[in-house]
Amino acid sequence: MELEELKRLLIPFSKSSYKDNNIEVTDVFQMPGHAGFSYGFTVIQGKQTDKWYIRLPPPNVKLQGTADVLRQVEALGVLPAVVPHCEVKWSGDDPQWFGRPYFVVPQLEGDVVRVKDERIRNLPQQTRVDMARQAVNALAEIHRVNWQQAPYLGEPLSLQSDVERWDRFVEKAADPDKLALVPEVRSLLLEKLPTQSPVGIFHGDFQWSNLFYSDDAELLAVIDWELVGVGSTLNDIGWFAIFNDPEAWADSNHADYIMPHGEELIVMYEEAWGSSLPEIYWFRALAAYKFAIITGFNLMLHRRGKRHDPIWETTKDSMESLLQRARTLLL
């Protein structure tokens, strides 16, 4: 959506939401990142200035899965105060405003963790450890939420389904030679399905780029809930661990590991959760397996001009190492 068009739509929406025809909408801009349909805007009402974030699904797509932004609203609505998150101010599916569903939350002052950022690199080691502990403590509290309080998210995803649902993406991936280990890793994952694991709401993409901190290194919000679901909550800590595992990555964007490594994060989580995780290796392997396939699929979209995102040309260098790491964890 062009910014001028969005501003035109935001004016009547904001007047209605504020119940004030004299408000002014300014500073409409596209948010950074890969989402593509997230925008910031400012509303001025007299001497009051409010900064907002609006999320819209892509145009002309089925409103399901990641395109169903109301799933995020559902998840955010059941989170307890102990989990830092953005509270939804307005949301809905009335097409009169934007022609599609939407939700609006306040903008935050701060940033996500970018490990190549000098600001992060210059932090004392203990501060980075504290940041990790805040994140893991929040994650454990997310996992304590009764998933049945969020019926819109659907029924729990089985572990077998969570392995098999990636098959169709493998067939479409670019550089298929880099996915040569997929059949073996897939077989190992299915052969070694965990016998039991806690079921609840999982974030789906719990990593540093979705953790928003103040300039004083305080966790302000867990953001970007588009992959939220119900199933094994160990998906999240396995994902977080693999994203901080030097043995899993070979590309230049994942060359620096200044934040706590995967094993440290798992120990923190076990402390926060209150029990050990003997089968966490399986969820780490699943995360590596998933992201190798996701990379190949997104690389295909980029190369075919369906979604311009050149970062995948760099991340592709880790497709093989991710699968090798998954196999090692499972053997």
Q: What pattern of helices and strands is seen along the backbone?
A: HEEEHEHEEHHHHHEEEEHHHHH
| Shape type | globular
Taking all residues together, what is the mean pLDDT? 94
Helix content: 40-55%
Indicate how many domains the architecture comprises: 2
Regions with pLDDT < 50 over 5+ consecutive residues? none
Class by SSE composition: alpha+beta
- Quaternary organisation: single chain
Arrangement of strands in the largest sheet: 1-2-3-5-4
How many H/I helical runs? Answer: 13
What is the CATH level 1 assignment of the largest domain?
A: Alpha Beta
Number of strands: 10
- Any idea of the CATH topology of the largest domain? Aminoglycoside 3'-phosphotransferase, Chain: A, domain 2
C-alpha-based Rg, rounded: 20 Å
Strand content: 5-15%
What CATH architecture label of the largest domain applies?
A: Alpha-Beta Complex
Alpha carbon gap, first and last residue: 48 Å
Q: Name the CATH superfamily assignment of the largest domain.
A: Aminoglycoside phosphotransferase (APH), C-terminal lobe
Mind describing the biggest β-sheet? Answer: 5 strands, antiparallel
Layout of strands and helices, then pairs:
Layout: H1 3-18, E1 24-30, E2 38-45, E3 48-55, H2 70-78, E4 90-92, H3 95-98, E5 102-106, E6 111-112, H4 118-121, H5 125-144, H6 159-164, H7 167-170, H8 182-191, E7 199-202, E8 211-213, E9 219-222, E10 229-232, H9 234-242, H10 262-273, H11 280-303, H12 311-315, H13 319-330
Antiparallel strand pairs: 1-2, 2-3, 3-5, 4-5, 6-8, 7-10, 8-9
Helix pairs in contact: 5-10, 8-11, 8-13, 9-10, 9-11, 11-13
